[in-house]
Amino acid sequence: MKLDWVDKLSKVVEVKGGISSGDVNTKVEVYPATYEEFAEVVRLCAEEKLKAYVHGFNAHHIGKNVFADVGISTLRLNKVIEISEEDLYVKVQAGASFRELKEELKAHSLTVPFNYGGSVGGFASTNLPSVFTSLGYPKDWLLGAIVVTGLGEVVKSGSTTTKFSSGYKIWKVLSGSLGWLGAYAELNVRLLPYFEYHFEEVKDHERAFKDRALGVIGVKVGGEVKKFAVKKGDGEKLEIPEVFDFSILTIRGKEFEEIEGVNADFCVAYYGLGIVRCLGGTPPKGKKLVKERGCEGDCFNANYTSLKLLKKSLDPEGVFFDVI
Amino acid sequence: MIEELRKIVGDKWVITGEERKLYSFDGFTAVSGEPSVVVLPGNEEEAVEVLRYLFSRKAKVVIRGSGTSLSGATVPLQGEVVVAMTRLNKVYSVEGYEIEVGPGIANAMVTKSAPKDLFYAPDPSSYVVSSIGGNVSHDSGGMRVVKYGPTFNSVLSLKVILTNGEVEEFTPSPFFNPTSIFVGSEGTLGAILRARLKLVPKPKARKTIVGVFQTVGDASRAVVGIFKAGVVPSALEMMDKTSVSIVERSRYKAGLPLAHVLLIELDEDLEESIARVVKVIRDNDGEFFEPEDDAPYWNARKGAFPAMGVVSRAYLTLDCNVPRAKLPLILSKVEEMSRNKGVTIANVFHAGDGNLHPLIPFDPDDKASLRKAIEVGSEITELAISLGGVPSGEHGIGLEKVKFLERYYNATDLEVMERIRKAFDPHGLLNPCKSFLKEKCQPKDEVFRWLWEWD
Amino acid sequence: MGVGLELDKLELDKCVHCGFCLEVCPTYVITRSEVHSPRGRILAVRLGVKSEGLETCVFCRRCEAACPSGVEYGKAISSYRRADATKKLAHRILENPGLLYASLKVYSRSSSPIALRIKEFVKSYQPPLQYKDENAELLLFPGCLNSVVYRSTVEKATNYLRRFYKVEVYNGCCGLPHYAEGEKERALKIAEKLREAFKGKVVVSLSSNCTAHMREMGLDVFDFAEFVVKKNLPLPQREITVTVHDPCHASLVGLNKYTREMLKRMGAKIVEMEDPSFECGAGGTYFIFNPELSRRIAEEKGRKVKATGVENIISTNQACSLALSLHGKVFHVADLL
């Protein structure tokens, strides 16, 4: 089927066939190579009343299944622009592979203290927890960004400095919003000196956390929960899957109470981050839940007027697909 | 209106007479305004009722806490109603690594209310008095940002009231959490009613090294060197010679040598880190000592701003932020400016973040001296922006820095921020004339002209 | 404006409005209103605004210790406070402990609000102790309230000091209430009178805020515990667990360390309360004229005391002792002798 808007798109950007991966379905995929192309695509979508869905490797979809007209792939925007050893930040485009970025940083004895198997944009947009639980969420490590709004504006938000009190934190509110409020084109991410790490099984998770391990997690397979501290120094590592079916949100420090009671095939408690993520089984009732996959309706427990106001300001035409 | 407010909070908590002038300015003393009335709600319910009433009457409002803003964020410029949230200072819950507090609680009280082995990391110098509502609204910094991040990283969720009267309580979720947009929004999007904050395990031990340098250049090169050596200190502060000499004349005197001083706090891998830091200090022609009792030095640092009162009755405190790598350059330029313009500029600042705090004294009875201070400040801030920095690292834009937004942002950036502000506050009721504006207000006198307009 | 006032205004102009004084001020902590804060009071004076806050100051001067700019708040603000007739009368009574005793007797039969308020605090009283050794070399200055309300403390201290010195008890007032509550001129006159009386004598004061005030007026006075510690006088051992209140002015001139040292030498166990120098709620005659604020400050103090779980409270200042008696058993260090 030849559609008029596809022609229009092809004039500004490389267009390929859509994807249908079950949870993400698009009619066409476009590959902007510059921020201007990215913005132009979004403007066109707004004009043509098309729904767009921005993604990198499409490896960590969360929320409602997507049926969008245009899939905007960031994979052509994949350059590492600047690595600052003095100021401990990296300026990098959204489509760069997070793993490759970490490899490159390692050569400078630097690192972003997270594990994530997708793009840098996905790392920022999904804001998923990692095993270094005492270091917070990705959102805390984003210093600034170049953002594309739903009106196709290319906007600077934040900076490269650790402190920033000079404007609304648009780049921060986009983190964890899965591309619904706007898309990252470029990110400034805070770095740490490179470190090796390993996992150690522990009995007392609280003690390990208070002794300031890099992180503490609980892994539940079948009925049994094992506790691990993540510590500095090379050694044995645990492979933690990155895709889950649902999450339970809880008070930070109460994750092990939650993981005990949950009925699932496999769960990880991220101690100190207030989240337990699970595969299989049934989400418990009466808890604050995030339905990560196969969800319909309210997936995130986030029916806020404030979010609607943000959507109205950042994507008034509703170009970005409603994953929420 | 006053009658209605009295009905909600009680007579004595509505200040209408001359006494309302006591709320006419904050820590930024170069200008003052005048509130039409001041209201001090006694609890969350009263605050909600007061604000709903004011919003329904389309009254312009300034929300404030302890009034320590250094950017004039709480100065009522248009006869606004000042709603002081200081009485909302409750601790609602302490559980796990979370504490939920009212916006009026002083920063220092958060750690005091926490379990003994945990602490609240953000520590702006005014932490003994500045309130959490203001800390959140400015994304306040402090000494420990260099390791623990700014206030943002410690705010898990908020309860807010919007200008349509709706009260929203956000879940502390990593997904779709609007808390992020309220942090640092300077009271322009809604009023904070509660904050859920993160508590961090205290380190087993902390160690302070005092680095002593003969030139600002050596000191600032050492700052960069420390990070390049793979050390992330838990605090890294600089006091230049001028500020050392001032502090040593104040109540906060610590017996610091009259030189450019770095205060370096480490709280991890102590042995290894100390060795690396010491090497960096030596490599940059510095000397050092490791005080047994480091409290006097940190008190000297924390009291350094107001200690300016010893030499001047008033001063501007800038807080532009540059990349650390640019510290040697900008500090030498500031020294040059100070010489050329004949203005004493004391630098006492968060070197580890590249967050400058040039303190520029002026005589409050002499407009010409204020004008000069504003001009010098403006030049420094512009320079910082041109070096890849930002106009404000932690004090916020307030009324002080509105003109620098057009240097830092382009028209589109400002347009998008304007849309956010308008969406949340369509009638322009919250903190008018301040922070992130596309169009500045009309200056009401020459001081505002100096602050808001370019020559 | 007189030269004195002019100077005091200049002193207040040193305030840079940073607000570091807010959370140490008892009336701010209770009201959380700028009106009742040191910063607000200073601004009221500077702007010439008539403010209720000037009268609600407890005059504990903790704000001075917190002020980075070194504003001498107490000295300057005292010039802008005015005593009304009732306060003046109260001051006159305090000047003469004999008259204080007589007045308390009169009040005990009255049911005026002031009398009732006084009775809440003062449960018993006795005529002041008159004692004088021949050729006395040491003046014991009990302080006005001690003289009549805590006579037994005066007796214990006198008996103790008599073992080492020839003692005379000097019943009188140090002038602090006057200074704090709008009669600065009269306070200066009282100080002059004391200077005459103290000439050539070693003076030991039993009331640490009086000690502090007299020191600041340039008088050479020891606080009781300070004297005992500095002279290395022998002390009995006491098996007792206490928490120590630091009277505000004594704190400012650094007297409370001697109280702790004396307790330590006696083998007492000290459990520290939070913010030991936080106002007790008495504030000289403050508790009489600002009952509501005084009550709430006392409640706040009570919370801090109770948190220690200790019943015995050490207070070296009489007015504080009255207010603290709401929260436990109060002792002067001399009571332990």
Describe this structure in words.
The complex is a heterotrimer of chains A (about 325), B (about 450) and C (about 325). Chain A contains 8 helices and 18 strands. The longest helix of chain A is centred in the first third of the chain and has 13 residues, at about 35-45. The mean pLDDT of chain A is about 95. In chain A, strand 16 and strand 17 form a beta hairpin. Chain A folds into 3 domains: about 5-75, Uridine Diphospho-n-acetylenolpyruvylglucosamine Reductase, domain 2; about 80-195, 2-Layer Sandwich (Uridine Diphospho-n-acetylenolpyruvylglucosamine Reductase, domain 3); about 195-290, no CATH class. Chain A is of the alpha+beta class and about 325 residues long. Chain A has helices spanning about 5-10, 35-45, 100-105, 120-125, 170-175, 205-210, 255-260, 305-315, and strands at about 15, 25-30, 50-55, 65-75, 80-85, 90-95, 110, 140-150, 155-160, 185-190, 190-195, 195-200, 215-220, 225-230, 245-250, 265-270, 275-280, 290. Chain B has about 450 residues and is of the alpha+beta class. In chain B, the strands form 4 sheets. Chain B has a 7-stranded antiparallel β-sheet, sandwiched between helices. In chain B, strands 5-6-10-8-9 form a 5-stranded antiparallel β-sheet. In chain B, strand 8 (about 155-160) and strand 9 form a beta hairpin. In chain B, helix 1 (about 1-10) packs antiparallel against helix 2 (about 45-55) and helix 7 (about 215-230) runs antiparallel to helix 11. Chain C has 3 domains: about 5-80, Orthogonal Bundle (Fumarate Reductase Iron-sulfur Protein, Chain B, domain 2); about 85-230, no CATH class; about 235-335, Rossmann fold (3-Layer(aba) Sandwich). Chain C is built from 20 helices and 8 strands. In chain C, the strands form 2 sheets. Chain C has a 4-stranded parallel β-sheet, with helices on both faces. A 4-stranded parallel β-sheet of chain C has the order 6-5-7-8, sandwiched between helices.
